[in-house]
């Protein structure tokens, strides 16, 4: 849930911070009553073969998630949302469907709903780094940098050494004006020259956001 001058070489992870700055920014069964056909006795049911009596196995959560991915790729967002919601309802312990539904909502600009889905999941799995990071992204998009920093910090603590979560922490710190702390984190995951460049990008992004807010846009 998501430009040509000569530039410095971008090491792995460098584009991540810049991308974040730019960002700051039928399964339902229908039960039908069965009427006896003309000529059938209303008192006795017909015998059913063994093959006919077997029911289809319920889809697994991974099957539902795979179906949702296919529907999303086809642009069938309503069907995708229905499948993911069904998966969460039927398999509330399957974390990937929460992330999938939140990603769909973010792509549609439904940030509050995405945050609600992820918050529900985080209450059940408070140390899941992916959930924490994704919830931080929701707050980052909403320009709630203080809250986003809280969740990125928790994600980093749950998965030490993940440069993606550290880069997100640096982004929130930079947008809060805590430039020295942002640069210190960037230096841990990027070469010096690129770390400094990204810190400067964050400073410019913060200024653009401030200018936009002052102009009421």
Automatic annotation (TrEMBL):
SUPFAM superfamilies: TPR-like. TPR repeats lie at residues 95-128, 129-162. InterPro entries: TMTC_O-mannosyl-trnsfr, TPR-like_helical_dom_sf, TPR_rpt. It comes from the Bacteria. Residues 34-60 are annotated as: Disordered. Residues 44-57 have a biased composition (Polar residues). It holds the Pfam family TPR_16. Keywords: TPR repeat. This is Tetratricopeptide repeat protein. It comes from Anaerobaca lacustris.
